[in-house]
Design brief:
Chain lengths: 295, 295, 295, 295
Amino acid sequence: MIKNGDVQNQRAEQRFKLTRVGVTGVKKPVVVERPWGRVTLNATIDVYVDLPSDQKGSHMSRNVEVTGEVVDRSVRKPVRGLEELTSEMCEILLERHEYASYSEVDISADYFLERKSPKGRPSLENYRIMGKTECYKNGDKRRYIGVEVVGMNACPCAMESVKNVYRKINPQLEDILETLPVITHNQRNRSTLMMEVPLEKKVELNDMIDIVESSLSSPTHEILKRDDEAQVVIRSHENPKFVEDVVRDILSKVLQRYKDFPDSTRVEVKSESEESIHKHNALAERITTFGELRK
Amino acid sequence: MIKNGDVQNQRAEQRFKLTRVGVTGVKKPVVVERPWGRVTLNATIDVYVDLPSDQKGSHMSRNVEVTGEVVDRSVRKPVRGLEELTSEMCEILLERHEYASYSEVDISADYFLERKSPKGRPSLENYRIMGKTECYKNGDKRRYIGVEVVGMNACPCAMESVKNVYRKINPQLEDILETLPVITHNQRNRSTLMMEVPLEKKVELNDMIDIVESSLSSPTHEILKRDDEAQVVIRSHENPKFVEDVVRDILSKVLQRYKDFPDSTRVEVKSESEESIHKHNALAERITTFGELRK
Amino acid sequence: MIKNGDVQNQRAEQRFKLTRVGVTGVKKPVVVERPWGRVTLNATIDVYVDLPSDQKGSHMSRNVEVTGEVVDRSVRKPVRGLEELTSEMCEILLERHEYASYSEVDISADYFLERKSPKGRPSLENYRIMGKTECYKNGDKRRYIGVEVVGMNACPCAMESVKNVYRKINPQLEDILETLPVITHNQRNRSTLMMEVPLEKKVELNDMIDIVESSLSSPTHEILKRDDEAQVVIRSHENPKFVEDVVRDILSKVLQRYKDFPDSTRVEVKSESEESIHKHNALAERITTFGELRK
Amino acid sequence: MIKNGDVQNQRAEQRFKLTRVGVTGVKKPVVVERPWGRVTLNATIDVYVDLPSDQKGSHMSRNVEVTGEVVDRSVRKPVRGLEELTSEMCEILLERHEYASYSEVDISADYFLERKSPKGRPSLENYRIMGKTECYKNGDKRRYIGVEVVGMNACPCAMESVKNVYRKINPQLEDILETLPVITHNQRNRSTLMMEVPLEKKVELNDMIDIVESSLSSPTHEILKRDDEAQVVIRSHENPKFVEDVVRDILSKVLQRYKDFPDSTRVEVKSESEESIHKHNALAERITTFGELRK
């Protein structure tokens, strides 16, 4: 007979350790402190610990209890950032799962910022924010935060190809081709920046969103009247970009903005364009450390 | 004690009839005869019948059995169209579920057609095809087939707004604005045409794909070398379209192509653009009959 | 030259009216008044009007403007329900689109309610809430609200089949089979109730969630310690249900709870089980009016 | 003026190398040779190379051309496995992108195998198969293949907790509790095995599917008549498993089946249960090498 029904604490038959055991897709409202007041995020959270080779199961209800406790506390005392929230959860997880040597929490949520259109019309734009902490019993800890931004990019290659077609048809167009942006395909682009936050440092999500959004051909806006729409189209065509350019510009701005971060700081940047001329997407990605980028 | 465990045949406690009861998301390889040979579709199928108020449950395994039988037969004797397949299934469903007065089968699958790029390069393009039959015990039957096409559309309004900006900056540009297409936002567009196939008529899916694809600013292509890419960009900008235009052009071509179809023929057309300048989509839709359109 | 770049106001070439034209997937934080305080919903909103046959395009930026205005006002003066919000938006849409004779707004959002486990442990459970209004220029208006609840259902048929197997193996088990619930397959179930709110009536979303959740074999809970988990398992097996039963029980409770609603009131109920013994789902559905149900 | 419009070959302004640049979501029918004949897979393919720091863009149309060529050849001469297909593509990619030092191809597709229910009824069951190759200019190459299996698992912990409840209610039940499986929650489970195929070795996908499917509480079946359904329920309850057990059993069988594979062979196993008693999922995972598992 199993004592107290604790099947999890039995010895495992197949004695392999497990990298991650936990719950995924837990939904919770989280209250965070923002420069302009308190905001409630509708977060989706994954919570894991590792499992040693000799224990049959992980006590998964503890993962959800820890989530509930930390999130409930956020209502009374809002957290300052997702890295604070995930970091606190990871530490408590290691206490509650006495057999674990590793804990991990992943979180993501919709997020809104007020933006202005080219002609100054305000609107609330939607972003996705992410946080992640990995924590080891030996005290090592890695905290990450990230943002996903939907924007617009216009292809520089097709623009050049169209110019070449025009030149062949009518060489006298050369002057006009130098002054006016030429037609090309443009499309919805989804770019993400995920970076480590060194323990003694702070990173503001709004800054990260600025970095990504300013690296696209143009931001997108919810409300565009005719004069605004023209400006967004002109701006994006004066600023054509490959997904490769987007990733490199983000990397460059990150290095510039976080100059004092150590070489070990990890960073992942991805830009994916939902190509208007193809049924498939175009993607560029860099996964690396600040040290590698500084070489 | 329930005889043979037939809980379904028990009397229902709450005596309401049910509109549809069945299985969803059944995956099956279906062999269909195409002009160029046999093709295997990886289909996703939903199968329903109605349920009278006095019966507790529907015998759902019969739905999957009928699916299996008809699909297996397709391997030996390929079906000629999705409407043939769903129609046959609906009739057998009414026989097997002796208590049912209505049966319905929905099917969808990826589909491929060879297309040529503007410069003549061939590639296999991906589409989605759909079929649906609704069958009544009194003999009434409605069969539908449909297609979903991913293509490109370029906005005519932003093009006009950009022209107006250019005119203000430099009125001498007027000549050039009349000859060269002007920049605008363009994007991935997803358009669907679903229409009834009157019992004595035939509709070829490839024709429906042609109708939808030719109603967009431009088709999209998997492989575009530089000269091709320029042509697709120019073609789409010489042919700017609202989602409203796309839906109306499809409706017009459908009426033209299927002149002899009765007024009662139902048709649904939808066009959705994944706007490059917004984070949201633009959608236009018409749900109607041929008779309404002919007025 | 097009005046003010108003391409939308041009005459359409293909003169078909359109059923719905608008924007989909607009994301907005909406503040609603709840019995226990103000809550911020992260809503996804679709906004449409119809388009007459002689007008080329709909002014879609007006849809997003109306959304922004009404939602912004909700921050200062929280709305009392989703039907109030969508209803107000629909009316303004008809004013702003002077050519439209129909407007429609669809909204959905995650929603949280505190629930207690069988042993009394509190947790915040996640639901999905929906709202929809259809508004006609002639004054007709239909408002709907809805809820989606994830719960558990246990199959009564497999339970009976297992009993029959046991009886054959050992007829002396009959006594025990009468007292203890027998094993069966159980699974995650997703049930929705969408109903019309007659103009002079009120419907509370929390009541609708109660109706759906109490019609399943058991609610599900985020945190279940061992004693709780046993109770949820026992409760669901003492209360085995087909998806057909779930739909009928919801219909019955709706009729009971909203006795004074007119016969014309529309209602849609759907229950889908993600079957543990199959790779496909089982679904039951009823789309009808209160009048039909009362017959 | 850019020569031939080759914007990609320009020098990059921001001189960072990129880890992966390419196309995602290319859909293609691929013909593969199976023990029982030729099968057409509807594959989704991602194709990448890296990009040196001094080159502005990657020539993405080459990725799609290589895909087309290799897949077209599969129609005339079917490939024997996904690892053969992705491996060949990776090699050609490095030739075509003369600047690349790394290439990667990811592929996945629906797949069907005939299975028998407990009572011997045949049905075609649906699986997901995956392939991946990573190829370096220095000749290093890593090939992976994988499978995703949907099955059923029953929770051993809740079963024990229910037994304890029964014992307290009636100690005389002890005998019956030893002989009959007790009720518990069970649910749809999605488990994946992805493993490296050492260059001189072969791995058969069907074997991998067998390994995963036999590690669950029970396989699932499309068609189950009453006697079959009872057997599936009994079998799963006689074989209750945590997701942790599923992962470990797969690892154990993999080591046993591929005894002669080198210690460096990589393997990833994941099992996710769509919990019937919760709104969230339970997940266990191990990412490791054969060498680590053999310790």
